[in-house]
Amino acid sequence: MSEGEQTSQAATGREMPLYERLKADIKQRIETGEWPAHHRVPSENEMSETMNVSRMTANRALRELASEGVIVRVQGSGSFVASKKRSAPFMGVRNIADEIKERGSLHMPQVILAQTEICGHDLAEALEVEVGRPAFHSVILHHEDDLPIQLEDRFVNPSVAPDYLAQDFTKITPNAYLTSIAPISHTEQFVEAVLPQPWECKHLAIVRSEPCLLIRRRTWSSGRIVTSVRLLYPGSRYRLESSS
User: Fold this and answer.
1) Phi-psi region of 63 (alpha: psi -120 to 50; beta: other; left: phi over 0)
2) pTM higher than 0.85, yes or no?
3) DSSP-assigned beta bridge partners for residue 210
4) If DSSP codes are grouped into helix, strand and coil, which group holds residue 89?
5) Among 120, 150, 176, 206, which has the minimal tally of Cβ within 10 Å of its Cβ?
6) Cβ neighbours of residue 189 under 8 Å, at least 6 residues apart?
């Protein structure tokens, strides 16, 4: 493939840009099984050397393949052939560990933060408590096999779960623990598309421009707020499903 040859005549007679030819070549390798799921895709520099294309051409091809969900770009590690996008039902409150195990994968949690904080106005309103009251705050990164798939940023009402911070969240998820001590009687949740914050990019190993799926959820038990949580998923790795 020569960089000097800017376009190629497609079977339809339409000119195909060089980056499209590169994308088609990569897709063919994936479809034939030459590059299976999780296979590392050559970097821009490697493509420049072995496929005789410019870094700009390679960058555009990889960027568009990532936006199409064909590959996954992990910051600091490279690009990899995507497995089938993980999915979960939209309705209900599922345990991320159960979802991952049902797909035959390994759930690997990492506790980023677990501490007590004082409620400002917004947090007090979210938990329906008085300003200045304590709240428990945890941030946990959930991996499916080696791939970070969910960043869980959770606040918990201590009056409902006083022993929350004493739990080992590498062995039990906050979801599993809270539902065991305070069965859910009511749920409120919203879903939106967002761009990640810098600290979220770092933990999820994604670039700042990666579209993400954000679920904001509050749950009640016996008329009291149990938790307010933000669940952030890289858009290229996850989707929600609904059927009726």
Assistant:
1) alpha
2) no
3) none
4) strand
5) 120
6) 215, 216, 217, 218
Euclidean distance between CA atoms 142 and 150, whole angstroms: 5
C-alpha 183/C-alpha 4 separation (Å) is: 65
Answer CATH for 7-81 from 3.40.190.10, 3.30.1330.60, 2.102.10.10, 1.10.10.10: 1.10.10.10
The residues pairing with 87 across neighbouring beta strands, listed in sequence order, are: 239
CA 238/CA 149 separation, integer angstroms:
7
Report the CATH fold assignment for 86-241: Chorismate lyase (3.40.1410)
Domain residue spans of the chain: 7-81, 86-241
| 17-20: long-range contacts, CB 8 A cutoff, minimum separation 24 | 18/53, 18/57, 19/57, 19/60, 19/61, 19/64, 20/61
Tokens linked to 123:
């947090």
